Amino acid sequence: MSDTRKKEIIMATLELAANKGLGNVSMNMIADKVGIKKPSLYNHFASKEELVEVMYQFLREEAKNTANIGAIDYTTIFAGKSALEILKMMVGGYFNINHQEHMMNFYKVIYSERSLNPMAAKIVAEETDKMMIATKQLFYAMEVHKLLHFTNPDMSAVSFAMTIHGLMDYELDQSNGKCSYETDNNLLDDYLKWFCEENAV
């Protein structure tokens, strides 16, 4: 399958899902939107589940490329930076990936259906797992470079990743709910400062 056709099918599915909900989108609807016959769509994707899984991987890679997130060289990243600057940079990179338009639309669809749709729940869980693994690697490196000290780096990473994830969910809920009350825009910054103080060397 050509990358152009793959992207066309993924974007058509994303648009339909954003408007109708993932559970209400059929392979017929996707084929019609792309302008191909249903059997041709099955030549590209064996099922809707496979299509959504490929969509997640594709959009995530596209977002990483756009945000210019590549392999991590901790020695270079850490050079001349405080622990707080490093955490702000890493969390900022994660936010940049997830706040790109296509990725945001995808998450709106997946998050709205994760309690009813096992495929959506699996993708959210996979994303959380990736974040926890990346955070553990970051914290081991910060410990080695004597930037922060953790009594239990694994549990610190889980706690940190889940808090960041929760703050992202909170921000998304505020945005989607068009909340009019005053919110603390510095909540993330305050958390990162507190975290660095709590785990100072």
TrEMBL record:
**Superkingdom of the source species:** Bacteria
Q: Which UniProt keywords apply?
A: DNA-binding
* Classification via Gene3D superfamilies: Tetracycline Repressor, domain 2
Q: Where is the HTH tetR-type domain?
A: 3-63
Recorded hits in PROSITE patterns, A to Z, give:
HTH_TETR_2
According to the UniProt record, which residues make up the DNA-binding region? 26-45
Does this entry carry the keyword DNA-binding? yes
The answer to keyword DNA-binding applying to this record is yes
Question: What is this protein identified as?
Answer: TetR/AcrR family transcriptional regulator
Protein source organism: Dorea ammoniilytica
